Structures are given as structure tokens and as C-alpha cells.
Batch of 2 targets.
Target 1
Amino acid sequence: MKNSPSEIGIDHMALYVPGPYLSLDDLAAARGVDPNKYSVGIGIRETAIATPAEDVVVLAANAGQRVLKEAGVSPDDVGLLVVGTESAEDKSKPTATHVHELLDIGKSCRVYDVVHACAGATYGVLNAIDWLHNSTHKYALVIASDIARYGKNEAGEPTQGAGAVAMLLSRQPRLIGLNEISTFSKNVYDFWKPLDQKYPLVDGIYSARCYAEAAEACFAGQDLQENAAYIYHTPYPKLVQQTHMQVARMIAGDVDIKNHFKDKVGPSLQLAARIGNIYTGSMWLALMSFLEANLSEPAEDSDGCYLFSYGSGCGAALLRGRLSPAWKEQVGLFGAEATLDARTRLAFDEYETLMDIYENPESISADDLAATTVNGSFRYLGTEKNKRRYGAA
Ligand code: HMG
């Protein structure tokens, strides 16, 4: 199913991940856990760890700069900038205001954040699609940026992660056209972050049940195409596998569910297995993963994809994606696997030190902060008079 010229969607996307990562074999050894629990039971092998010079502004700005550069789009042509995040450093001042300045986007751009747990960026994308229907501007930039931390020795620790996915939306997109086909909302306490808590509170097993209920509600009644890819919010790959076993039963005909998962879902989980959960960016990372993994496949007509987004609390949306004729040219620029291959493996005590600094940000000296290297062009410089400062790395 190809994109018709009038559809709105993603013209290009780019990933930013921090340079260091933790091997979950090292985490398992330190926590006295069988490593198969993480690699097989949960499905994650490595998690991205943000440095003290990286917060959600830095992740977002570095991803945003990359997407504009690769797409060959001037910041002046961006009329809407939305950051989806649930790890902001400020309860009022939007993360997007810093990103707006760092990317040198014009003053006539509308700039704001969207918060809805892991669904924030998806709702930002849906806002951008509505906005593009009426705007005279050429592009909207939506950036999903999050740092997922659960704390040492917590059940969620192996599912931590950090990263940003920047998406440039346009009419006649070169990558993928999108539209929402169903939605689901319900007030639940499955995962939440009271303002006075450093880490989220999680009802782990219940959260997986809420996710499954939302998926079932979103996929029910759809005329599901067997040949489409199925892309899911991926807090950890095993949950996606379990959910797809249920969703695949809703596809008409005699579907070999195990093989369907392997071909139509499996490639979407490769990047998450090496990064962990990046909350708002997670489903979009899964899309990048699927497309990059299929780059060497023949460029035949496909049935596009379904995209299931879930945010705790909870809200979910199911989107239909249709690949544009030139999708391979855009995906050829991703280089996501290569970026991950170039990262540095942390020693376990280095990981614990980074967690300690997150818990006590004042414990790092100005010199040590300045000496911390960053994977991209922008970094956090420190806080003066309660104002966070950012600049060139
Ligand atoms: P846990 O205590 O590690 O769970 O917490 P477990 O002991 O049941 O083990 C997990 C799986 O590993 C099980 O498989 C075990 O059998 C298996 P399952 O029963 O599910 O098939 N296992 C092994 N497999 C192979 N070899 C072994 C072995 N040992 C055990 N030796 C939990 C797991 C996911 C609950 C925890 O990591 C957690 O709390 N995570 C955070 C919450 C979360 O990710 N929830 C997902 C749904 S909610 C959501 O997606 C929203 C979210 O992204 C936030 C947002 O929206 O902002 C989280």
C-alpha cells in the first residue's frame, strides 16, 4: 500500500542515543540474577545510559539537529515544534523552548511540550498532522525525548533507557503517511510519577495487563492485513511478543502466529533490545528498527504498518502507516545500528556512579561536568541562579 500524494506524515526521522551503555549481563551478575531472565524473559541485552551532560533537552536538540540536516530542511521552514517527554527538568517551562533556541528555529514557530507518559510524542504527531491540514508552513518537528530510570535494584532496572527520536512531518512525506484509526483511554494507576518522587511508582504486572487491554481495544474491529508490519510501544520486547500473540488472532484467515511475529514484528525490536525503554520515543524507535532491518529486502509494494502507541495512566492510539515510494532513501540515512555499535560499554561501578549523580546532581563538580563527553553537538552546561544552561558540546 503506497502513500497517495495528499497524505500527511513523516518526511524523515533521526535517533540520538547517549554514548555509554550498560550490558545487562553485567547488571545480572551484579544483582545475582540469571542473565537469561533479562535477555530472554524480558528481551533486553543493553540499555543506554545518559551522562550528567545529557538531559531531555540535550537528547532532543541533538536528534532535532540531525533530522533537519539529513532532510536538508532549514529551521526557518519549521512552523510547529512539539517535544513529547515525561522526564522534563521543569514543571512549567517547556523543554521545547530550549530546543527551539538551540536549533535556531524562527520566532513565528508554535512551541510546546506534550505530556502523556509514553504516548506524549504520538499525541504530538497527531496534533502536527491536524495542524499541517490548515497551516501554510511546510514542516512540523516533533521530538520524543526521555530518560527512563527506575532506580537500583528495582524490577524495572533492566528496562531503563535513554534516547530521542526526532520526526519531521510534512505534506507529501518522503518516508511514511500516517493516520489514526482507533483510540483508547481509561483512568488507571499502572505507572505514575508523583511530583515529590525521584523514580516512577509501578505496578508492573498490572501495567502489562493495562497495556494488553488497550491493545485489544485498539485492534478489535479493524480489518487487519496479514502482510502489514505490526509496530508496538516497546517497554520491553517480551511484552510486545506476548501482546502480538493475542493481536495476531484477530487477523482473518489461517495465520501462522509464530512466523508472523518473526517476520512482521521481530525486526522492530532489535534497537529496543540494545537501548531499553525510551518512553515517548519507544514506538517510533520500533518503527525505525523495522524499516532499517528491512532495508536490504526488495522494495516491493507492502501493506505498510500498524503502529500501537501506549502511555500509562492510560491512553493508547492505533495508527496506520503507508510507506512512501522513496522510503528506502530516507531509511538509508538512519545508521541506527552503526550508532549503537560505536558506543562505550560502562563498567558496572561507572553505571552505579552515574545513578548516584542522578540522585544527587550537586555531587558532580563543575570540572567533571565540563569534562563529560557527549555524543552530539549540544550539551548541558550547568545551572546558574536556578536556570539550566545549554550550549555547544
Ligand atoms: P519482574 O519482577 O522481573 O518479572 O518484573 P518476572 O519475575 O515475572 O520476570 C519477567 C519474565 O522473565 C517472566 O516471563 C519470567 O518467566 C521470565 P513471562 O512470565 O512474562 O513470560 N524469566 C526468565 N526467562 C528466562 N530465563 C530465566 C528467567 N527468569 C524469569 N532464568 C516487569 C518485570 C516488566 C514487571 C518489570 O521490569 C517492570 O516493572 N517494568 C516497568 C513497567 C513496564 O515496563 N510495564 C510495561 C507496561 S506499561 C508501559 O508500557 C508504559 C511505560 O512504558 C511507561 C509510560 O507509559 O510512561 C512503562
Note: The pocket of 3-hydroxy-3-methylglutaryl-coenzyme A is lined by residues 34, 36-37, 40-42, 86, 117-118, 155-156, 159, 190-191, 202, 204-205, 207-208, 211, 233, 235-236, 238-239, 277, 279, 310-312 (CB under 6 Å).
Target 2
Amino acid sequence: MTPTTRLNVLTYREGPRDLLPVVLLHAFPLDSRMWDDVAPLVPGARTLLAVDLPGLGSSAGPGTSAPSLDDAADAVAQTLAAVGLTRAVVVGLSMGGYVALALLDRHPGLVAGLGLLDTRSTADDDDTRANRLRVAAELELSGTVDAVRPMARALLGETSRTLRPELADRIGALIEQQTPAGVAWSQRAMAARPDRTATLHGFVGPALVLVGDEDVAAPVAAAEHMVAALTAPHLVVVPHAGHLTAIEDPSSVGEAIGELAGRADIDEQRARD
Ligand code: MLT
């Protein structure tokens, strides 16, 4: 990516300047629209927006640069600066959480509050990394999103898969709209990410760690690992939800984000007084 990369921003609402804005970062292999059900359920009037990560949704392809979530985080920071946001509550789900951690590492002044949903701070093990590279190659070779299509069902928790199979159709429709090149780039970028647990040790601001109790991809143990590294965490375990809590239980996610943003506002006010 170039230093002038601008990503697509989905603005759900614009609020008063004295309340911290909330920035939502989506999961793989989806885009900002995965937050559609959550956005109206975040209490309060604050600015709420979501960013399409590089090569996904309506954001431009990442070009030929070596895939890196650091570049994705830099692009998010540049994009936010371009719309006048230099301080925000940053909330990421899964891959969005990896990017939130990269933002915290590389642009710490931006992050007033941190929401880590169904994600992990650790790097991939060798098998996971090898599998990502295999999937990326398959996406590029086939020129389709076939290799990630099964994720529509696999990311849901057992309860959602059984009781609300229509959610898989909705996630599948989002996957269909991604480009194989953008999805492959994201896989390679995730494979290259470092362990960022130490970054959490250095963050003293308010944090939310939220996880579905049926999440297999980033299970409760991964959430507890992050909680142990944070100074001011609030852990929320969402019952009967899998990896995509924002789609499976938007009301719990909206409420938890509102609570995090409220804590971040109070800290900002204290710092100003
Ligand atoms: C996601 O939901 O963003 C993915 O499960 C992240 C990953 O593959 O590690």
C-alpha cells in the first residue's frame, strides 16, 4: 500500500464532538456491513463508523505491497485522520481485533478505548500459518472465493447454526461480494502478524474483551489471555454465540460497546480536568 491509502468509511451516525467516536473494524472475510445490526443498538448519540479493511468491501485493493496488518492499521489511521478523527474508541472483531492491536502498537495516541471481540493477541502457530498461505494460493489460483465459502457456517456457533441457519446465508452473501485478491491479501497479512500481547500490557485505558461462549476460532481462553494482560479490562462472555457475536447477538455487542465508550469518555474528561 502507498502512504496515501484511503479506505472506505461507512458512517452510521454523526454525534457531538464532546463524545468519543467509535470506530468498528470487521472480521475476515467480510466487510463493514457485518456491523449493520449492532450500530443502531449502541446506546447514546456518539459518532459511529466502520471502516472497510484493505481490499475488502468498498476499499481499494492493497496493490502489490507485501501483505501486512501494520499497513492496514496505518491505512485506517490515515483514513480516520482524513475525516478529522485523531482519537477514538476502536473496536475490532477477530481480524478487526488484530488490526486494532496493530493500531494500538503503531498509533497509540489514537486509541482512547479498546474493544477486542472474538479475537486473540497471539500470533498463529505454524500449522495455522501454513493453512492460511495454502488458502491464499487457492483463492488466487481459482479466481473465486470458493476456498473461504465454508466459513459462512463454520464461524457461527452451534446454537446459531441449528436455530438460525439463515444467518449463514447472510454471511455467505457478504463473502460472495469480496474479491479473491482482497481475501488472499488479508490471509497473508494475518499469517504475518506478530504476537501483540505485550502491546496490551502497555495499554492503561479502558478495554472490552468480548467472546461468544461457542466461539471455536478465538475461544474464551484466548479472551482470558488478553484480559490477564490488560490494566482495565471488562470481560463479556456472550451465551449461545459463536465467533460472529456482532451478527449472532448484536444487542449484547451494542450494549458492551456503549459501556466501553462511556468509560472512555469518563477517562478523557478526567485527563482534561
Ligand atoms: C475472522 O473472523 O476475522 C477470522 O476468523 C480471523 C482469522 O482467520 O484468524
Note: The mean pLDDT is 96.
